Amino acid sequence: MDHRDKILASRGEIKADTVLQHCRIVNVNTKEVNDADIAITSGYIVGIGDVSDLIDVSTEIIEVDLRFVSPGLLDGHVHFESSMVTLSQFARKALEHGTTCVVIDPHEIANVLGKRGIELVLEEAKTLPLNIFAVISSCVPATPFETAGASIDEADIRSLMDNEMVVGLGEVMDFPGVLFGDYRKLAMIQAALERGLVVDGHAPGLTGRDLWGYMAGGISTDHESITYEEALEKLRMGMKLMLREGSAAKSLDIFLPRLLEDGVSLENVFFVTDDKHPADLLEGYMDVIVRKAIQIGLDPLVAVSMCTLNTARHYHIDHLVGSISIGRRADLVILDDLESFRIHSVMAGGERVETQVPAFDYPDFVFDTIRYREIIPEDLQIIGAPDSRVLVNVIKVFPDQIFTKKDNSALITGRTGVLLSDVKKDILSTAVIERHGKNGNIGLGFVRGFGLRSGAFAQSIGHDSHNVVVTGTNHADMALAANTIHEMKGGIVLVQDGQVLDSLMLPFAGFLSVRPVEEVANKLERLHSVIWDMGCTLPSPFITHSFIPLPVIPELRLTDMGLFDVERFEIIGVVDYL
Question: What domains lie within the chain, and their CATH numbers?
Answer without folding.
Answer: 70-323 (3.20.20.140), 366-577 (no CATH)
